[in-house]
Amino acid sequence: MLFSNCSSFRFFCSHCPSSMLHSLPKHIIKRRMLSLSSANMEAESASVLVLCGKSNAENEFALSLKSNNVLRFLDSNPVSICLHSEIRNLHCDSEGFQVDHYMDVLSTSQFGRFLMYSPRLGSTHDVVSHNFGELPIGAVCVADVQTKGRGRSKNVWESPKGCLLFSFTIQMEDGRVVPLVQYVVSLAVTEAVKDICQKKGIQHLDVKIKWPNDLYLDGLKVGGILCTSTYKSNKFNVSAGIGLNVSNEKPTTCLNATLQKWTPVAHELQREDIMAAFFNKFEDLYTVFMGQGFQSLEPLYYKTWLHSGQRVIVQDKNDNQDQVVENVVTIQGLTSSGYLLAISEDGQTCELHPDGNSLDFFKGLIRRKLA
Fold this sequence. Notes:
The protein starts with 6 loop residues before the first helix and ends with a strand. It is an alpha+beta fold. The chain folds into two domains: 47-304, 2-Layer Sandwich (BirA Bifunctional Protein, domain 2); 310-368, no CATH class. Helix 1 (7-15) packs across helix 3 and helix 7 crosses helix 11 (271-292). The chain has twelve helices and 14 strands. It has helices at residues 7-15, 20-23, 26-34, 38-43, 56-68, 84-87, 99-105, 124-130, 181-200, 255-262, 271-292, 298-304, and strands at residues 48-53, 80-83, 114-121, 140-146, 163-172, 208-210, 214-217, 220-232, 235-245, 311-317, 324-334, 340-344, 349-353, 365-369. The protein is globular, with a radius of gyration of 22 Å. Helices cover 31% and strands 27% of the residues. The strands form two sheets. It has a nine-stranded mixed β-sheet with strand order 2-1-3-4-5-9-8-7-6, with helices on both faces. Strands 10-11-12-13-14 form a five-stranded mixed barrel.
């Protein structure tokens, strides 16, 4: 039915020219699949990237992309490109990402409509960022498992099964608003989860944003956002990556584990529903953001983040610049450049920057006074 975590097909596809999939009868393909050992299946689990589009035009683009063989990969393991139409009728493990279901729920006009899916990949972020010029804006890459996922400052992001892992492309012209797009992405995640819970008639999972790019639930981290950009031909090419714990209770907790504590009836959120809901929300929020600025989204953002009225300790140097002094300030919101706006105990307004060294943004904050 759908391509998912089907190791046997991955092994077959990586060892046969992709054109053979068109010519071999399905019963031969299935016999070949059944003859493979489980050891070989696992060894080749990172070898396939499936291309798919929501419309005929996007599926034609997928065919062109595969035929021209232009995609580049940082992984040392070879990656075989397949079209979803070539393998959608094969029987595969239902644990993998359900492409058809995702496309059915998606209702965007641009974002998320061209999909690249792999059961096992080094990094979805690497795929979109290193192939940005070959992909349509809004193209998304999703994986069941990542082996080289990363967070801020090259920190490792653990990416086990059950985690929603995807990256997509955005293009912007105004460099002044590029740093703020990560907040729109974060907000779209929280709004997507809220929307799904409402539609299912279940208790709202109150996912919160920890500035600048972490997602928290009941005091524990359940997700993170990574946005990187490059400048080319007078435009900023932004690669946005999202990791969200949906069904994996480790390394912290996940949405479904929290949901099961609250509801007597078994309910589970699906990765496909969340990703489709994310793009449905993001496209609307991004349109407002680009047309009216982030200020128009701030009231909703502040309802979702953890920090309004929060008191934090910041670091300053004394007049002689030879000693660090700690002071308490209260967070008020965001500045126009996307940093934290705070007020000190003596009434002075200041902008807070991270020191660039700590994993916790609220340890070692540096204050810059505002006029």
